[in-house]
Amino acid sequence: MRTILSRYIDPAVLALVADRHFEPRDLIVGNMAGAHKSPLSGFAVEFAGHREYVPGDDPKHIDWRVFFNRDKYFVKQYELETNFVCNFVLDTSASMRYGEAAEQKLAYASRLAMTLAFSVVRQSDKASLALFDDRVRQFVPPGNSLEQILRMGDQLDRSATTEKTRLGACLSEVAGRLGRREIVMIFSDFFGDIDELEKGIQRLRYDRHEVLLFHVLHEDEVRFPFDGMLRIVGLEDDGNIPLAAADVRGEYLSLFQRFREGVQSISDRNQCEYILTSTVDPLADLLSDYLNERSRNKDR
């Protein structure tokens, strides 16, 4: 446990955000003794409906009467009195492996997600983890114990794929695993078909999940600080192109800005929260500023 915690969670960063609770914005309908009264799906209290069984669900919640009538597995869902579920969805495709050491995009996104997950679990709410590239590779079902952080970190350690990204299809697959009205945090550079990205987000929003997009970028991608002759090597294709930095800088920056604004527009259209991050941003500052801003917006 200590090894995984030290690899993904900086105690100094955690200390700066320790007194800030992460709260849902639109999911909670009341409070009970300091806990959440929530319409989120779970397996306690009041029956709320059915959804199709997916791998990772506890078989004890299968409704066998429905199975005998329809020859398909469905699980019973209930309304929770206490916990919300926060799902951390990380892009592990090849483009996320750009950068060195702590400034690698995947490493930065992993630390960001794990720190937030630790905070969620520590306040007795539930966290899950999905890792994807061209498909969902790993899924850790929701849990709210410290062992859950160990399980999540173990799956991050096992992540070694270098496949392309299929954002829309993977988000739709994740949506099929969720209950009713959960929180979904997506950590990605969103390099891919953004029309397909929007379809995946629309599926999540149709199911009334709260969706947050953490747009994780390397400073090289944001600034294009290169000079002289370059050889551009594709991380998710076989491209290998020699070019002069001065010849393409202006057009690249223009196209990149259009791309970034396109992702933000998708977020705005679908009433998601958009958080732009660069791997040079100190994690403590990013998390502290973000949680403060979220708290202020919630109180308005």
Query: How large a portion of the residues is in β-strands, by DSSP E?
Result: 15-25%
Query: From the coordinates shown, what is the CATH architecture?
Result: 3-Layer(aba) Sandwich
Query: In sequence order, what are the helices and strands, one letter per element?
Result: HHEEEEHEEHEEHHEHEHEEHEH
Overall CATH class: Alpha Beta
Largest sheet: 6 strands, mixed
Distance between the termini: 39 Å
CATH superfamily: von Willebrand factor, type A domain
Give the class from helix and strand content and strand pairing.
alpha/beta
Look up the CATH topology: Rossmann fold
Low-confidence stretches: 28-44
Number of strands: 13
* Overall body shape: globular
Number of separate helices: 10
Please compute the radius of gyration using only Cα atoms.
Answer: 20 Å
Fraction of residues in helices? 40-55%
Q: What would the average pLDDT be, to the nearest integer?
A: 85
Largest sheet, spatial ordering of strands: 8-7-6-9-10-13
Q: How many domain regions? A: 1
Report on this model:
It is a single chain. The chain is of the alpha/beta class. It has a 6-stranded mixed beta sheet, with helices on both faces. It has a 3-stranded antiparallel beta sheet with strand order 3-5-4. The chain has 10 helices and 13 strands. Helix 2 runs parallel beside helix 10, helix 6 (about 165-175) runs parallel beside helix 7 and helix 7 (about 195-205) packs parallel to helix 9.
